[in-house]
Amino acid sequence: VQRTGGSSVVSKCSAAARGYIQDRFLQLLAGRRRRRAPLIHRGYYIRARAVDHCVQDFLLKTKSLPRTQILCLGAGFDSLYFRLKDMGLLHHTVVYEVDFPNVACQKATLIKEMKELSALVGDTGGEGLGAITFSGEDYKLLGVDLSELSELEKILEEAGLNNEIPTLFIAEVVLTYMENTRSDALICWAAAHFPQACFLVYEQVHPEDPFGHVMQQHFNQLNTALHSLAQYPDCEAQQRRFLGKGWTECSVMDMNEFFSRCIPEDEQQRVQTLEPFDEYEEWHLKCSHYFVLAASKGMEPSWSPLLPSVTVPRHAGPVGTAGSVPAAVCARLSGVPGLRRYGHHSVLIKANVILTMGGFGEEDGQHCRMRNFHVLSKHAGYWEAVCVTPNIPDKRWGGRLYHTVSCLSDTLALVVGGRTSPSSAGLGMLWLKFPKTCNASGSDDVAVELVSLQPAAEAALLRWRHSTTEVTFKGEQFLFVYGGRSALEPVLGDWYFLHTPELSCTAIAVEGPVPESRHSHSACSWEGGVLIAGGLGAAEQPLGSVFLLRELEHGFQWQTIETYPPLVPRYSHSAHVHEGKLLLVGGVWFHASSVPGVTVIDIMTGLCLDYVINVEHLEWPLMLHNHSSIFLPDEKELLVIGGGGNCFSFGTHLNPEPVLLSLSSILISH
């Protein structure tokens, strides 16, 4: 537990070095520098922003009072005091920091050795007196175990903490490391002993969904179990916890809600453009698994820092479900390591033969971009897989993520777009040619050829997280390439019609209200047109709209499909059409109380039903984003291949085996 403070300050320091947060003191306290990934930078940005937002609100509300105090519980190597002092915000506020004795001693030594720190704090020479490791006029650093409440109370009294003045308690990922009886006692003690008090908490939530399982496993392996989660698994339980322990007001929100409602839009945009970024799913999942809580009592005026400054619709309560869909491991495919991947694409070449290519996954025990293809085929009721090493003329074109594959015949497919790194340009198109006999019983070669287009058309199609769908116009076949993103544009809303098979860009008139730009949406062919659902919009907010691009005599028309109840906004799902019903599978949404399962939309009536996936027969967390799925109409089954992602700093989760979802009970023919 003591080591968590050190790794936390190193991550905050890396975020500051990239401009996410302004804090010149972190480097002095971190001691060592390590460059973290953009996803980690965002995670520590939102954490620092939430704490700062609430602390500054407390100081603003109490600035007319003669004296206030801040008590940082488990402060570690945090720089809060030095930042506030440097900004001139501590005219009448004393900051007390508490941590384990050896952590407090290390920090006290650092402060004494660093002139920039010791000059700010103005050393009064009171340190070294037992548990008080450092003492300045408005800063006290105390070494004491928080779980020893009577000892804590005694030392705080010695250090000069005053029960009668407004006090802000801060617990930034601290209480959860304590046994619940001890953290509950601390919350009760603070409410009982301080007539005017505020309590700020930032920590984890939602242990039971797939991301939550990976998160818990990570902390258990570090021997830093998250004790709060079993008793207080969600934001509502945490709110009830404080209201039941002496606090009269309490507001709480997860970090998706905090980011979209409490951070001004221009600041959101600044952060979103600081460095190349393409891990939206993991960012939103991380944010749905952390919360900020502000509780208070006896404060005049009342302290409510979590009032939104940006008006966006609030994520409503739990999603109602119409039933469940059973999931089972696909028996013969369970030992194929190459199918553990995400950001790949799977396509049905012909009946019972599937090609899976690209993505990031596991090859020869290593995590890497996947260069090998896999051909899956069904024999005598069982799926089998074989690995095919493609002969790719240019190595850069091989391991790509977030591309599309469109099958034009049983021997020919077209790969459009995709990327290697999010900072590099998207990749061009490839022809995939395979023999008529292609299946998993023999590793027939898949020939790969680069596609040459007109330069303007080629540049326009350098994108990823887009969709490519077959459409028909005046009896001719076209591929409709829509949306996505590129190295320059974080979200695209344009489209192209490619006439097949020669792939000429064709101008076809499209009328009607143009859908807002999006990527990571789904697109399905239906009656010669395209059904577009969900996606991530320009402000990195999931979309809940469904559009039909339908054929008219002289072109196409965008038409909105209204859904009832409204479709819960989502992205990174897969989709299929069966007998007038649009099936959406998995994805990421902001309703943290559950994860998306299978949603069935009646295209004609708009009726929208959500089904949870019953995973009781799976022995591992099923992450249904960045996956691919193939609908098998005869069996009324979905074969889900791959899925998962990089779970913040908790490790990479790849669904270990393909899974079959049985839809027969929800697709009863009328």
UniProtKB/TrEMBL annotation:
GO terms for molecular function: tRNA methyltransferase activity. Belongs to the methyltransferase superfamily. LCMT family. It catalyses: 7-[(3S)-(3-amino-3-methoxycarbonyl)propyl]wyosine(37) in tRNA(Phe) + S-adenosyl-L-methionine + CO2 = wybutosine(37) in tRNA(Phe) + S-adenosyl-L-homocysteine + 2 H(+); 7-[(3S)-3-amino-3-carboxypropyl]wyosine(37) in tRNA(Phe) + S-adenosyl-L-methionine = 7-[(3S)-(3-amino-3-methoxycarbonyl)propyl]wyosine(37) in tRNA(Phe) + S-adenosyl-L-homocysteine. Pfam families: Beta-prop_TYW4, LCM. SUPFAM superfamilies: Kelch motif (SSF117281), S-adenosyl-L-methionine-dependent methyltransferases (SSF53335). This is tRNA wybutosine-synthesizing protein 4. It comes from Pycnonotus jocosus. It is an enzyme of class 2 (transferase). The keyword Plastid does not apply. Interacts with RNF144B/IBRDC2. Keywords: Methyltransferase, S-adenosyl-L-methionine, Transferase, tRNA processing. Its EC number is 2.1.1.290, 2.3.1.231. Transmembrane segments: none annotated. Probable S-adenosyl-L-methionine-dependent methyltransferase that acts as a component of the wybutosine biosynthesis pathway. Wybutosine is a hyper modified guanosine with a tricyclic base found at the 3'-position adjacent to the anticodon of eukaryotic phenylalanine tRNA. May methylate the carboxyl group of leucine residues to form alpha-leucine ester residues. Pathway: tRNA modification; wybutosine-tRNA(Phe) biosynthesis. InterPro entries: Kelch-typ_b-propeller (IPR015915), Ppm1/Ppm2/Tcmp (IPR007213), SAM-dependent_MTases_sf (IPR029063). One of its GO terms (biological process) is wybutosine biosynthetic process.
